[in-house]
Amino acid sequence: MNWMTVIWPMMIAACLTLALINLRIAMGDVRRLPHVFFFFSALAVAAVTAMELAILRAQTVEEVNLWLRWSSVPLVVMVSCVTGFVGSFFRTGKAWLAVSGNCLMASAEAANFLSDTPAVRHATGLQQVETFGGVWFTKPDVVEGPWSPVEIAGVALVIGFVLEASRTLWRAGGQKRAVIVGGSIAFFFLFSRGHAIMVERGIVQTPYFVGFAFLAVLVAMGHELSDEVFRAAQLSRDLSESERRMDLAAHAAKLGFWTWDLKSDEIWANETARELFEVPANEKVDFSRFMLAVHPEDRDGVQKAVEEALAGGLAYEREYRTMLNHAGNRWIAARGRVELGPGGKPVLMRGVLMDITAQKQSEYELQQLRGQLAHAGRVSMMGQLASALAHELNQPLGAILRNAEAAELFMQADVPNLEEVRAIIADIRKDDQRAGDVIDRLRALLKRRDIESRSVSVVQLLDEVLALIRADAAARGVKLTVSCDSDIPSVRGDRVHLQQVLINLIINAMDALSDTCTPERKVTVSADASKTGFVEVTVSDNGQGIPPEKLQNVFDPFFTTKPHGMGMGLPISRTIIEAHGGKITAGNHKNGGAVFRFTLPVDEQQEV
Ligand code: ADP
Predict the structure, then answer these.
(1) Shortest CA distance to 207 belongs to which of 60, 52, 75?
(2) CATH topology of domain 254-355
(3) What is the pLDDT of residues 416-426, one digit of tens each?
């Protein structure tokens, strides 16, 4: 069995396989140049190996010379492609070395191929030589031609180029690649050329090993290239994994993704986005198809937003409704970004969209609810106003009634005391005016108009209230005491409102006393200015007090414990005091009876 007829065809097959693999990769890879060079190198090595085999089996000198001549073609292709591979794969190297080396090589081989007289090498005779395993092969006696030094110089320059490129790559951090690819190319180039010279000069009695050497170079190149391919495959696995994760997240968040290629007017949309627009997976979508799904009333707005985004290269943001066959009208929130091409022109728009129908629906419901609440508020305010008026008018109307009854009694006398009647009528007029004032101011207060803010003397205020209520107190058998320093500072506020508060508190105190069997019914009103910036007014009684569990409710509207009470006096009083910038509190005395305290800000201007 002749091993040469096995090994050499195997080498050819290996070269062709490598060539085909790289051709396939080169066709699908963006960074394809190294694979293209590899493909042609592998083809050339296969051809050189085939010619080597033909020489080993040649019977005549002419036959050998024919193959020596034709081998020039794949040799040139191989050397130039290996140079191209190193340049494109390393992205380093001196161009002048590559170009001059290849030019010398190409011109020597061209001379060898084209001229009638042998230029680089030719055979003058043949020998049959026995080698390992008792295998015989043809060894030509080769004579070097005049172009041989040119070829050697070309190969030397190419080796120089490879070494220089490897050195630069090494320095830039690519040590592994520099050693494996650069080192092996340089080594096997030197080896194959050196070995061929030794064979031709009869120093060694072996076949040519050019094919072997270059197959080794191919293996080294292929090893690093496949490393790249593995890395790319790993990257693509990682990418598709992260894409799956993104898809899952987008699906969970019900986010639709879209990309609009402006040049081809093609819109890519993920599954969620297609579902939102009811577009089947296989239907092509362009801008006009998208606009068709937008509600007619929102189309202009969307068009304008898109145009503005494109004109300014800006972000796009819009909420619009869709008009769909099955799902009816949906609300969509879309956000996007314009991507610009090399010339600053928009080339792409990409973004996300989300179904916000539920959110819009609840916004609408909230708005409805707010409207209803406002209406209810108005109704309740009217109710409060009516209750407050009824409450506050009770006192002046009661006084008017009592005065009118007294006047009637006076008039029944034989000789009516006209002076008394006149005084009573004057009182009635005063009470009537008060009632009118009460109505006006209450209305203003409930409409939240500003209160009338004037300087009010606390001493005067207490005197006025006392005058108004004294008769009532006397009728109820209540001792009403007022204690107040004459130099107490004035406060700022609305006299009638403040009178109202005091009257409310005093009447409540007197009411509380009406059910008690206390021998002495006392209501005390006092004022002091011990708190800086405030005057504190206290109304206390010695009635049954307020049950502790009810203390927090007494200011609530409509809270009352009286059979005919309305529960409006204290809430109105609190509104008035707070509108004056003060505070009102309720409490109980240690030894019985309730205490109401309110503060009012001191009138600073008056103080100065
Ligand atoms: P009304 O007087 O119509 O009941 P108010 O708002 O003026 O309404 O008073 C609410 C409730 O506070 C009263 O019904 C009463 O129970 C309690 N209250 C007010 N002042 C006193 C007081 N001085 N002593 C005991 N309870 C009081």
Answers:
(1) 52
(2) Beta-Lactamase (3.30.450)
(3) 888 888 998 99
